[in-house]
């Protein structure tokens, strides 16, 4: 699954650690989501969407 | 380089520092436990065989020096100065893991001292005293499950996935290893199966997969 998390984070000048604190997950989790190694659960995807004030579809989209 | 790039680069390099901490803890801890075991066994043996001479004192001093050197090198290699914010969940998880490490070192140290002049006592199948067995079993059946439960409730979903994958791989290692060794022993090709060796192999595989999936 592709996502815009890295871009959204960069727009806010946040490090992975900062985003991790906002989401209450580890920095490794943020890194794994950004690089597509981990697909977040629905609850975490909703937390991410709420944090950036976007819908889930505006952040995450499938390969096609 | 823009400020955004700088913060991004910092965050990209940070996972390696965590992995470094984990490796230092594991290698340093094992070295310390084995050194304590050697020192305890050697000291008891020398004392029972007629007292301390200059050679024995030198050897014990070298053992103490090795422990000191391990602590010093670990301290020097420990990553410093990132000063990054750490999520509350991650802090709690780290505290629980440190508590587990401290309990492991204390138990390992106690086993090393209790095994006396047997340098392999920590990992042998030699008989132990009832009090030692009670302490070990109580730790394993009461304290370790509580710590594991607390840790499991603390970690985030990414780490839980990594841990589950480690469990899956190590379960398969067990399924293939245990019957193979059992059958090989029955055919006379291998010594009798030692469940603790199987446990150690399964645990190592579990830990490698878990840490690799979390940090790599």
Please explain how this structure is put together.
- The complex is a heterodimer of chains A (64) and B (216).
- With 64 residues, chain A is mainly alpha-helical.
- Chain A has one domain: lambda repressor-like DNA-binding domains (434 Repressor (Amino-terminal Domain)), CATH 1.10.260.40.
- Chain A has helices at residues 5-11, 16-23, 27-34, 42-51, 56-59; strands at residues 2-3, 60-61.
- In chain A, strands 1-2 form a two-stranded antiparallel ribbon.
- In chain A, helix 2 (16-23) packs across helix 3.
- The relative contact order of chain A is 0.22.
- The mean pLDDT of chain A is 93.
- Chain B has 216 residues and is mainly α.
- Chain B folds into 2 domains: 3-155, no CATH class; 156-216.
- In chain B, 80% of the residues lie in helices and 0% in strands.
- Chain B has helices at residues 3-48, 54-77, 88-114, 130-154, 157-186, 195-215.
- In chain B, helix 1 (3-48) packs antiparallel against helix 2 (54-77) and helix 5 (157-186) packs antiparallel against helix 6 (195-215).
- The two termini of chain B are 26 Å apart.
- The chains are: A mainly alpha (64), B mainly alpha (216).
- The A-B interface holds A 6, 10, 13-18, 20-21, 23-33, 38, 40-41, 44 and B 3-4, 7-8, 10-12, 14-15, 18, 84-90, 93, 156-159, 161, 214-215.
